[in-house]
Amino acid sequence: MEDLRYFAEMASELNNAEIQAWKRAGKRVIGTVCSNIPEELIYAAGILPIRLRAPRLQDTSSADSLLHRINCSYTRSVLELLLRGELGFLDGIVTTNTCDHMLRLAGELQAEARMPFIHYFSMYHALGKAADEWFVLEMEKLKGSLEQAFSMKISDDDVRRAIFVYNRTRRLMGQLNEFRKADPPPLSGTEYFQIVLAGMSTPREQFNDRLEALLPLIQSRRAGGAVQSRLMVVGGGCDAPEFIEFIERKGARIVTDGLCFGMRHYSGTIDENDANPLHAIALRYTNRAACPAIINGFPQSYGILSKLIREWGVQGVICARLKFCDHWAGARKLLAEELRKDGLPLLDLEREYSTTSSGQMSTRIQAFLEMLKSQA
Ligand code: SF4
Questions:
Q1: Cα 99 to ligand 1 centre (Å)
Q2: pLDDT digit string (tens) for 270-323?
Q3: What is the C-alpha separation between 79 and 227, in angstroms, rounded?
Q4: Integer distance in angstroms from the first to the last C-alpha of the chain?
Q5: What does CATH list as the number for 17-156?
Q6: CA of 325 to the centre of ligand 1 (A)
Q7: CATH fold for domain 184-191+225-375
Q8: Where, residue-wise, is CATH 3.40.50.11900 in the chain?
Q9: pTM for the full model?
Q10: Does ligand 1 come within 6 angstroms of the Cβ of 293?
Q11: Phi and psi, residue 151, nearest 5°
Q12: How far apart are CA 182 and CA 187, in angstroms?
């Protein structure tokens, strides 16, 4: 479908054609490294936030000299891009301490980046009222840094306008996801992920308009192909449509996910009537499926995941976690236990950020799908 090709193209490059056009128009771009960083505030400053990714990067040898290989390959890949000068189009980066790997990356980016703006956004690690307050305090610091670095003022109305734009994105993505309840769904998991990633690296109003135009085309699309196993993918640092395609080519359909480069980025709208827009943004972030780095977040996350599993008719779950990611290594044990109680099989895949296919993974996925078919 021609309309889908645009999203695939935008998702295939970090510094894509829309980013280049935005820069040529004299506008700024700031990179973020985690879905817990409140993009709405950066957008309220008239700056385009983009989630840092390293499509098709295979070698991190320069970064490995600064960040030990025990750090996850997502963090080393981001640093590698910086050291190769491939982030030169950015006007700044917002770093954070989601996990120790991110914290080490923050230190290296602070030391190595030659940009007008590097801001460290300190993350809460336990849900509760204190987390909401902490998030608001950190947003006020980020707001102050942006205003100072770029000699501007960010008003509450600017923040409300950004909230409106982001809510529109999340509602449109919600509509798109509803179509994936169909069996078979009218779009593949691969196509869906290209849309997801394009939405993280193109101007939001433009993305919203294109997505709104795409929805009726997807809705009327005849879903081809035999019924295949319906899967959910969870995990961290998983942002490669090629990896999703690798799974789907084996006779599966990824119909939903619990990824920070996916559902967690687009779920939940912000209360547009809250007198304090920063407080409203904080509640949206702390009430969604939590990252495993949040020590008491699993019950809330599993509540959201199991609702998706029921409503999207999921037959099996793949946990695609990065090597050395201690948080997902722990979370998959909790997840396996809960899924076992709910009678749902889990396939645990450990991978490197750049690994989108491998013989060993191929065999394990094939065996998992055959087991699901035998159970169907
Ligand atoms: S994938 Fe895991 S280790 Fe890597 S940045 Fe995310 S939470 Fe940290």
A1: 6
A2: 999 999 999 999 999 999 999 999 999 999 999 999 999 999 999 999 999 999
A3: 42
A4: 31
A5: 3.40.50.11890
A6: 5
A7: Rossmann fold (3.40.50)
A8: 184-191+225-375
A9: 0.96
A10: yes
A11: 45, 60
A12: 10
